Amino acid sequence: MPSGLCAHLFGLSDCPVLSGSGAVYRVCAGTATFHLLQAVLLVHLHSPTSPRAQLHNSFWLLKLLFLLGLCALAFCIPDEHLFPAWHYIGICGGFAFILLQLVLITAFAHSWNKNWQTGAAQDCSWFLAVLLATLGFYSMAGVGAVLLFRYYTHPAGCLLNKMILSLHVCFCGLISFLSIAPCIRLKQPRSGLLQASVISCYIMYLTFSALSSRPPERVILQGQNHTLCLPGLSKMEPQTPDTSLAMLSAGIMYACVLFAWCVKVSRVEKPSLCFCCPEIVEADEGQRGGAARPADQETPPAPPVQVQHLSYNYSAFHFVFFLASLYVMVTLTNWFRVGSRGTVQPSSIPQGHMGSYLPLS
Question: Using N-to-C axis directions, what is the helix angle for 244-262 and 314-332, rounded to 10°?
């Protein structure tokens, strides 16, 4: 931004309020508030014909202007009032988003496996598709574990990284064993390795996201200072901020939410290769419990009024994106606390570890 415009708006020449971690906090605060307000306004909405449903399906230009207004308003809040409180709100919301995402991924894998196993009972080609998908996800998880050991550990240090990676690999093996254990299959007959492979791949992604946000370790080897536990850093040198991994993490998490939200696990589904958009088996309303018309009845009865229902919960949709906005905020700032004038300060909560502790629970 030109320094003249910045000086005119804020009385500053370098505009730190419009860049860095402080700007991330303010923009995400506006985005999160926008989705939270819509989630509250759309609570207990059951029909798409309701006037409140238009808040979700219409008024796009007005909503865009309102969103921009909220983001602009966040830049007018003093730092000492916004950053301390919003830091802890962001940590709680980001952690809740990871928990919610794990639940959605689990439901997604279960519905996918149920859909394809139904087809496998009729055609062997479906069984081959399940096998190939399972092997593919396990291959990605295995390659990810090898790369994490290769680039995020070192023989001279990185003990915490080694412990986290080892525990997560053991955890992936444990859930794979439990998914085919006889006692589990008695309660869940459709339990299988496909769900375990998807969850294992997701755990490796969470581990990568956590390790990439941890600070490097500095040790002395052969009289020289070396920086370990992060790829690309071998000597004592200033660590430049890199948000590429954080942006990749945010993109993957948004995509996972959209894919998982497409799955309707509460409905009966036909086998479909497009597992995120299954064919829904809808019962014929005219054949359900309809009384036979008497022979002497002159006029046929009026057709039953079909009640329209929402294809998904609008309020829950916006609440998920409220949590996602908080997750993006803390991810882009590496879970650090932002001080006055947007300066980054170490957080009292170990940054980068929350995504690592979650799979262990």
Answer: 160
70: left (phi over 0), alpha (psi -120 to 50) or beta: alpha
HEC readout, 152-165? CCECCECHHHHHHH
Annotate 239-251 with DSSP letters as a single string.
-----HHHHHHHH
pLDDT at 145: 92
The angle formed by the CA atoms of residues 102, 103 and 105, to the nearest 5 degrees, is: 65
Cβ 208 vs Cβ 144: under 8 Å: yes
pLDDT tens digits for range 222-250: 666 666 677 765 544 444 445 566 666 66
Exposure string of 152-169, with b = 16+ CB inside 10 Å and e = fewer, is bbbeebbebbbebbeebb
Q: How far is CA 290 from CA 55, 277, 298, 303, 307, in A?
A: 37, 31, 18, 11, 17
Summarize pLDDT for 148-202 with one digit per residue, the tens. 888 888 787 778 888 889 999 999 999 999 888 888 888 877 778 888 898 898 8
The single residue listed with the structure tokens 């500095």 is: 218
* Closest to 206 (Cα-Cα) out of 164, 255, 260: 164
Question: What would the pLDDT profile of 317-343 be if each residue is shown by its tens digit?
Answer: 889 889 988 888 887 777 666 655 545
**pTM to 2 decimal places:** 0.69
Residue 103 φ then ψ, to 5°: -65, -45
Judge whether 271 and 115 are in contact, CB under 8 Å.
yes
| Residue 178 structure tokens | 């439990």
DSSP SS3 for 224: strand
Rounded CA-CA distance 273/231 in Å is 39
Most confident of 124-133, 228-237, 265-274, 281-290: 124-133
Tell me what pLDDT residue 135 has: 94
Distance CA 128, CA 111 (A): 18
DSSP states of 94-131 as a string? HHHHHHHHHHHHHHHHHHHHHHHHHHHTT-HHHHHHHH
Between strands 337-338 and 224-228, the pairing is unpaired
Q: Kindly report the number of other CB atoms within 10 A of residue 177's CB atom.
A: 12
Please give the single-letter amino acid code of residue 193. Answer: L
